[in-house]
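Pinned message: reference record for DNA alkylation repair protein
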Amino acid sequence: MSKETFLMKDSINPKVVKELSLRIKKHYKNFEDVQFSKVIIKDLKKLELKERVYLVSQSLHKYLPSDFKKSVSILIKSLPEALPNNSKEIEGYGESKLKSLHGFIMISITNYVSEFGIDDFKTSMDALYIMTSRFSAEEAARYFIKEYPKETLKLYKKWSKDKDMHVRRLVTESTRPRLPWTMQLPRFIDDPTPVLPLLESLKNDKELYVRRSIANNLNDISKDNPQIVIRILEEWNKDRSSNMQWLIKHALRTLIKQGNTEALKILGFNKNFKATVKSLRLDDSKVKLGSSLNFGVEVESTSNQEQWLMIDYVIHHMKANGKLTPKVFKLRKVKIKAGEKIVFSKKHSIKEISTRKYYSGEHQVQLMINGNLYPKVKFELNCK
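Predicted structure (tokens):
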């Protein structure tokens, strides 16, 4: 019998709900632990992850004291042990941890703080400071950034020097303008400059866990304010250490995929490279859904020195309205020698996938090298 697939929603399960209720009972004798568990467990199967998170946080509100300071004190005493304070030990934490109190049920607890403690900044932020070392409190913290931007950023300046990497990462992760799966921060989408000193102060953090978060924050910023990110990373690029070069590459990934020539230049890909490029050669200009688009590429260097080339291709997909929408795909990163000719082929699968709907009609494909776009080549897709 094959192993049952683990779904994220399964991290909030009867076992972990009962464990949480027993921990709370230990520190709050009037807690109706059996009823608390029963109310949650009876509805779990029909609920998705976010609905389960909400159910637990609302149940906490129902069964804990109405006094927020008292209830949050009980929750803090009921927490599991803090996670290890280094990147290597938390890498690879998988299903076993997610099914424990270190899993998504912690979001119910941190969301309880943000929903019912929003009028008590100090008590709530003190609680999130402790809770984030069990499971990142990045989502809950965003509500305090929204409500108390100056106060939160002032506190974050202090937290950026904290000895706990989970606290430092909370600073960089919760300030991401477009953090997935939660509300965006329009304030920082419009103007991310208040966040930049925090990223600057942590750019050389010893933990990859924090540096990756900084890169993700900058990648978010680049979607709305690319020039700010370009300016920052041009300066940071003076540091040629492997840690900094990894951060820069990770932070530029969206701009690189867009073919932004300034971003490519930071990574060593010159827009004005010297080479002759032959247009794409299609094996067949008619393609059936379920097969593949096959094409060849030929590039010959006209330089007397080595050059780095970032070779991508763009497919312009036909949409339902008849218009074409481009999507960039990675092809090859190559160091081409002086006078060298490189020839290679690509087999691009065109099959039904859940994230894209294909339509019959004219499509186009074109090369993009170091941000430079080459002539489009048409092909006909048949979806019947």
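Pinned by admin. Summary line: The radius of gyration is 26 Å.
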